[in-house]
From TrEMBL:
PANTHER family: ARABINAN ENDO-1,5-ALPHA-L-ARABINOSIDASE, ARABINAN ENDO-1,5-ALPHA-L-ARABINOSIDASE A-RELATED
Domain Alpha-L-arabinofuranosidase B arabinose-binding: 345-474
Position of the signal peptide: 1-26
Protein name: AbfB domain-containing protein
Organism: Glycomyces niveus
Keywords: Signal
Gene3D superfamilies (UniProt xref): 2.80.10.50, Glycosyl hydrolase domain, family 43
Length: 476
């Protein structure tokens, strides 16, 4: 994700392409299980809603399917309220995940010069224990301590097995030794909450600025090195090292493939699960054609890369993000949660012109719903019991119908057991019509979802009127 750097200096005028953000590969120790699939986190552009978190899935690492029907999966409500360049991070134990992203919302009207000189110095962070239930977003001010910092862009993090913590690195526009340009800075963290003081990580000589960089760890040091780094610095430069914070050796670039920083940006690494072969995804920002892959079975020489044509990216326009190799269990969870589930409506049995809808996060029964999406819900496996169901709002991914004190609201999932139970229901034959449906609470099994005075409630049902109020038709 970057306004394009000039070949000799940072472009300080109008924007070029989207900021590029790096990929984080899973640490080798993460879940000593075979990886069977791939998850890509990305944004889709500067249009309305494009600067949020989207997810895509692949079985082979080359052909991608949009999850959540191509809709937003996570929405930022902090900072600029927009995010770009998400990096997916897994703990070495495989029991915790983070998404870190650039806090930037060009689509809101912010200019590129303003965002470079007076932009957010924080990253937006989400946290999860299962890869599908995410915390509310929060800000992590990584560049605030840097004198004259103009921004914090294109973050990545990688677990450093030598030190037992994570190296978080990003681009900041700042003045060092009298030269103002984008450089890569880094800090160390164990929890993505507290950080060491930022230090310069990559500083190209002269006036060459750098925004995009991304590292992959290669188990077994195939090609002769433990780590490989791809950076957009006028070329697509490939470097190697045996230590994340040690000395890096330049191996070359991709100009022999006709690929330079004038043509592509946003390098994004991934390893194929079933073989020693690596793919480097490159965003063709100049032509707007999106990502293209080049691959290699030996990263020790840039001459080993070849351009591939056997790929398909799905329907959304994928901008700079990251790829995480998934275990079978992770893949099952992700597909169960965000697989392509068409939205449905809940039509009242006894007031058939009315549908369940949300309005200002309240939930009620209404006719002539506008916008129509406010009455659309994806009926997904129950958050507390996959044999039951939960109702996720089509227009607010990650938000569910949830009862509190027997009243209903649309609320963001917080990953807690209490929320999951409050938002999970057992679907049973309709109490007033077995051809329809009723929904029994899993944590109050003698209570059902019903409407009363057109408001949605959770009540015990004892009368014919109650049975009719608690009966719905699931329609398209």
């Amino acid at each position: 994700m970057s306004p394009r750097l000039s070949r000799r200096t940072v472009l300080l005028g109008a924007a070029a392409s989207a900021l590029s953000a790096p990929l984080l590969t899973a640490a080798p120790a993460a879940a000593q299980q075979a990886h069977t699939a791939y998850l890509m986190a990305h944004f889709t552009g500067q249009h309305s809603g494009g600067e949020q978190i989207y997810l895509s899935y692949s079985d082979d690492g080359l052909h991608w399917t949009d999850l959540n029907n191509g809709q937003i999966v996570l929405r930022s409500t902090v900072g600029t309220r927009g995010v770009r360049d998400p990096a997916l991070i897994r703990s070495p134990q495989g029991d915790r995940y983070w998404i870190i992203a650039t806090d930037l919302h060009i689509g809101s009207g912010t200019s590129w010069p303003d965002s470079m000189e007076r932009g957010s110095t924080a990253l937006t962070v989400w946290e999860s224990t299962d890869l599908v239930n995410w915390s509310a977003p929060r800000l992590l001010d990584v560049a605030g301590p840097i004198a004259g910092a103009g921004n914090a862009w294109a973050p990545e993090a990688i677990y450093n097995r030598d030190t037992g913590d994570y190296v978080v690195y990003w681009a900041t526009n700042s003045t060092v030794d009298g030269e103002r340009q984008h450089r890569i800075w880094y800090s160390r963290t164990t929890d993505f909450r507290t950080l060491t003081a930022p230090q310069v990580y990559i500083d190209r000589p002269g006036t060459t600025g750098l925004i995009d960089t991304q590292i992959i760890e290669v188990t077994g040091s195939v090609g002769g090195w433990r780590y490989y780094r791809a950076s957009g610095d006028g070329q697509l430069t490939i470097e190697a090292s045996d230590s994340i914070l040690g000395t890096w050796t330049r191996l070359g670039d991709l100009s022999h493939l006709g690929l330079t920083g004038r043509d592509v940006e946003g390098p994004m690494w991934a390893k194929f699960n079933d073989r020693d072969e690596w793919v480097l995804w490159l965003d063709q920002y100049r032509t707007g054609r999106g990502y293209m892959p080049v691959s290699s079975t030996n990263l020790g020489s840039t001459q080993n890369f070849r351009v591939r044509s056997d790929y398909q990216l799905g329907t959304t326009h994928k901008r700079h993000g990251s790829v995480l190799n998934l275990t079978a269990a992770e893949a099952d969870r992700v597909r169960a949660r965000w697989g392509s589930v068409p939205p449905n409506r809940l039509q009242s049995y006894n007031f058939p012109d009315r549908y369940v809808r949300h309005r200002n996060f309240d939930v009620l029964l209404d006719a002539n719903v506008s916008p129509a999406a406010d009455a659309q819900f994806r009926i997904v496996p129950g958050l507390a019991d996959p044999a039951a169901v939960s109702f996720e709002a089509a227009s607010h991914p990650g938000h569910y119908l949830r009862h509190t004190n027997f009243d209903f609201a649309l609320a963001r999932g917080d990953g807690s057991a209490a929320f999951a139970a409050d938002a999970t229901f057992t679907r049973v034959p309709g109490l007033a019509d077995a051809a329809a449906a009723s929904f029994r609470s899993v944590n109050h099994p003698d209570h059902y979802l019903r409407h009363y005075a057109y408001a949605l409630r959770l009540d015990p049902i004892t009368t014919a009127t109650g049975r009719a109020d608690a009966t719905f038709r699931v329609t398209s």
